Amino acid sequence: MPCEVGYMLKINYSLESGVQKSVADISAPAELNIQVRNLVLKARKGQKISRGEIIAEHPSKFGGACHAAASGKAVKVNYHHLTIKCDGGESAVEPVDVQSMGPGKELLRTLQGLGIDVAPLSSRTETLVINGLNSEPGISVSEQLLRDEKEILEAGLRLAETLITPMHTALAVAYGSSFSLHGAQTAYVKPKYPRSLDALTVKAVTGKEYPEDTKILSIMDLYDLGLVAKYGLPVTSTIMTISGKNYRVALGTPIRHLLSELDIKVQSGDKVVLGGPFRGEAVYSLDEGVKKGDYGLFVISADEFPSIEDATCINCGECVLSCPARILPNMISRYAEYERFEMAEKYNLNSCFECGLCSFNCTVRRPILQYIRFAKDQLRTGGV
Ligand code: SF4
Ligand code: SF4
Q: Which of 57, 101, 133, 157 is deepest in the core (most CB within 10 A)?
């Protein structure tokens, strides 16, 4: 199968997709491989698990819990992963009537327990921006959901508005599109990457950089919220663009299963990337499972694009010129490379919104974005 998204890497920053078909389901895999690193594991090896049951909780005050997307038995548990051998069993999890709950802590805790990250919902705001742009070139999830799942999205919006009571709600969409959501004023944004990134979408809609009185939710956030509002069941799947079409994929589905279902061949030296062409990360194993928030999968052929190298920076400045956050990716990546994370922070590491343009444009193909993510992760976890 040709790598459509991979081809776009060379030439295309457009966020328009013109997706035509409906979302298709990927069949259930024999095993789920769920990433549990940095989560508090609630399941143990040998345990029978029911579909929808909590298998891990988030250690933070606001992170959503992680649930089994299928029933089965936990056959492998380690620091990074929990593997469930699926048996096709029914769910024993009862739905929760979220819509009848009033705003407040109980609703927040219930949503968190159903897999929703509630940080953006946990306090009031003046303006709520719904980011309806496709996340990256070649990814069409937002457009697909706005076209086909308006009712679910509006249920999610009502729930979000119950909690954060915004004075104004805006839906950011591409110029020329006709998408709308009841209760949201449509704002048009030029559909060119990296304008789909939250910081830039907010700026395009409000005219301000990082305004304190504004929150942003993605269409996927709203969709998960809408599903929880409508069915009262936990989030156990994500929607992913693969070779130009969108698929509903159970969380934990091994990438090997996805490739096999869609008859995508991977040759020696090819890179399989989870996410989009700019922000995605190459997977280290095809047994790796799909995670919440993964919105794309593509294969870059070995001869299609120069691979990232751990090369020395030659001070050409290309990364600085391409950085929309107006920071110094060359300096930050060097400090991260030598584990001087506090210096990376001084060079405004936290202003980076991980667009990936610095890595994409680096003359010697340094893994700048990977260094940045490494530094952020080390600072967040204290190097654990
Ligand atoms: S990923 Fe690179 S280009 Fe993008 S904001 Fe961060 S430092 Fe700047
Ligand atoms: S583009 Fe690459 S080589 Fe050039 S300054 Fe940035 S990190 Fe260094």
A: 133
Q: Work out the angle at residue 52's Cα, subtended by the Cα atoms of residues 164 and 261, and round it to the nearest 5 degrees.
A: 105
Considering only CA atoms, which residue is closest to atom 3 of ligand 1? 323
- Among 321, 333, 364, name the best residue to mutate to test ligand 2's pocket (greatest count of ligand atoms within 8 A of Cβ): 364
pLDDT per position as a tens digit, 186-202: 999 999 999 999 999 99
What's the half-sphere exposure (Cβ side, CA atoms, 13 Å) at 212? 0
330 lines ligand 2 (CB under 6 A): yes
Please determine, for residue 3, whether its predicted confidence score (pLDDT) is greater than 50: no
Please name which of 275, 298, 257, 274 lies closest in space to residue 25, comparing C-alpha atoms.
257
Q: Does 309 have pLDDT greater than 90?
A: no
**Helix count and strand count (H, E) for the chain:** 12, 17
Is there an atom of ligand 1 within 6 Å of 327 CB? yes
Q: Is 313 in the pocket of ligand 2 (CB under 6 A)?
A: yes
Two tokens, residue 74? 């936990």
